[in-house]
Write a structure and sequence with these properties.
The chain has about 325 residues and is α+β, with helices and mostly antiparallel strands. It folds into 3 domains: about 55-120, wza like fold (2-Layer Sandwich); about 125-205, Outer membrane lipoprotein wza domain like (Outer membrane lipoprotein wza fold like); about 210-320, Roll (Outer membrane lipoprotein wza fold like). The protein contains 8 helices and 15 strands. It has helices at about 5-25, 95-105, 150-155, 180-185, 230-235, 270, 295-305, 310-320; strands at about 55-60, 70, 75-80, 85-90, 115-120, 125-130, 140, 165-170, 175-180, 200-205, 210-215, 220, 250-255, 260-265, 285-290. It has a 5-stranded mixed sheet with strand order 7-6-10-8-9. A 5-stranded mixed sheet has the order 12-11-15-13-14, with helices on both faces. Residues about 15-45, about 295-300 and about 305-320 have low confidence and may be disordered.
Amino acid sequence: MSKMNAAWMVVLLSISIAGAAQRVSSPQPGPAFPATPASIGGSNLPFQPIGASDLLRITVANSPELSQSFRVDKKGNLNLPLLRAPLSVEGLMPDALRDRIADALRAQHLLVDPIVDVSVIEYRSRDVTIAGAVKTPITIQELGNLRLLGALSQAGGLLPEAGPEVIVEQANGDSQRFSVRSLFDGLHPELNIPIVAGAQIRVPECERVFVVGDVKRPGAFPFVNMEDTTVLQLLALSGGLDSFSRNKAYIYRTQPGNPLKQEIEVPLRRILDRKSADVKLAANDILYVPTNGKLKAGATVVNHVTGIGNTAVSAAIWSSH
């Protein structure tokens, strides 16, 4: 071989080696892999055991039939296309379910080396419902370390008409009642209990008392307890007397088993003059301040404001005058 031919052979060999190196280093197109929530900018929820009714996002490389969103049924089973039987998934972590799906695909000879990804879109099995006198009744997800105050905070806090108690009904049927005052005063941290999946938190509205008749703002007002609800306090809440020409007012109180309300005379002038003790009211009491010649109108207002539609109230007022 001549020296010229040998030189050309060296050049050609160098070019061939360089081309092979370039082919090795260049990225090769891999198998098509459907996008997951994380890959398209979403975020997977914190890892928690999967439960009934949870919504999952499953991706399997080169398998569009299996790369979809699937909801776990109410029995905790996952029904996937191509697989001969449902998979029992309740209590599994997402990565454990990923391995179980891959094993099933291999065992049924559907894929030789399946590449599987599992993420949770919605943990419906971990619902906690907050309802009643809160600013935003809501259903939230219990994803670990949720406590009562945190749950109420996510519902926007309590409304002014919230009653004195918060009721927590756990998923196992246990029910607990907590004093709102004690829960929020910061002195009883043990009341801020853990809230588990399936719990229901209810904040009942407080009971009310009513003021009608010769006051500036007749209406219904929250009743907290008998110590904090008196005739003078109720008059203050209703803006005070519009005019005053009578010495007495009347409380109408529900009587168990009796359609007629009990009438309690209130020495209003003596209370205002500090000659008699203030009078305490009970839940659902109606404080009626009459005006001369307007007893009938006052009775009508009683029924209208309370929404009772009970002629017993009117009868009780008329029977006393």
